[in-house]
Design a protein that fits this description.
The protein is α/β, with parallel strands linked by helices and 216 residues long. It has seven helices and twelve strands. It has one domain: Phosphoglycerate kinase, N-terminal domain (Rossmann fold, 3-Layer(aba) Sandwich). A six-stranded parallel β-sheet has the order 1-12-4-7-9-8, with helices on both faces. A two-stranded antiparallel sheet has the order 2-3. A two-stranded antiparallel ribbon has the order 5-6. A hairpin with a 2-residue loop joins strand 2 and strand 3. The longest helix has 12 residues. The termini are close together. 42% of the residues are buried.
Length: 216
């Protein structure tokens, strides 16, 4: 997976926390849903200039829920320092993408990230714009037209089989096609100028949002 410099760095070369796993500009082999990568071009948060840039940030908001409410916001609160630092450093916008549960490539309300918006806003201390999808024209427009300092939360990445490469529908297992995976990754890549990985709990998985956000 080659990467081209974009404004002095590539979209897939940024990681937020020191000592954490990194997904960056690497050749990746998928083996049993896990990632075996030769890492290169790794950059830390203090190594880049995000001023005026749209930052696409992979987070892990797979939080425990009960009756549509978050019961433990720890995974959300742990991302707050990184999000705030990006905004304080002048990022035009921060676009958050995550999974929740195992919807197996099918949209299901019980796995929608729309349920956690109130908690994300409370932890972050600011308004968050929720977009009820993670690909398509509406998502692209919302990210392209984001206001300065805006935080956008996309809906569950795993609503698409192209995220994990597989799914289940009507009790039958199926695999995403190569074209579907390629298109999904290209659409995610187009949403931001810089890619940040803060989802360390899922960094070992070779899913599209972890290893497929790149430039040609």
């Amino acid at each position: 997976m080659g990467s081209r410099a974009h404004g002095g760095y590539s979209r897939s070369t940024v990681v937020m926390s020191a000592g954490g796993p990194v997904v960056s500009g690497a050749a990746v082999d998928v083996k049993e849903d896990h990632m075996d990568a030769k890492f290169s071009n790794k950059l830390g948060m203090d190594d880049i200039d995000v001023k005026g840039k749209k930052v696409l940030m992979r987070v892990d908001f797979n939080v425990p829920m009960k009756d549509g409410k978050v019961t433990d916001p720890k995974r959300i609160s742990s991302t707050v320092p990184s999000i705030k630092k990006l905004l304080e450093s002048g990022a035009k916008s921060v676009i958050l993408m995550s999974h929740m549960g195992r919807p197996d490539g099918v949209k299901q309300d019980k796995f929608s990230l729309g349920q956690i918006v109130e908690t994300v806003e409370k932890e972050l201390g600011m308004k968050v714009t929720f977009v009820a999808d993670c690909q398509g024209d509406d998502v692209a427009k919302a990210c392209e037209n984001a206001k300065d300092g805006e935080v956008i939360l996309l809906d569950n990445l795993r609503f698409y089989a192209a995220e994990t490469g597989k799914g289940v529908k009507d009790g039958e297992k199926f695999k995403a096609t190569e074209e579907e995976i390629k298109d999904f990754r290209e659409q995610l890549t187009a949403l931001g100028d810089i890619f940040v990985n803060d989802a360390f709990g899922t960094a070992h998985r070779a899913h599209s949002s972890m290893v497929g956000v790149d430039v040609e």
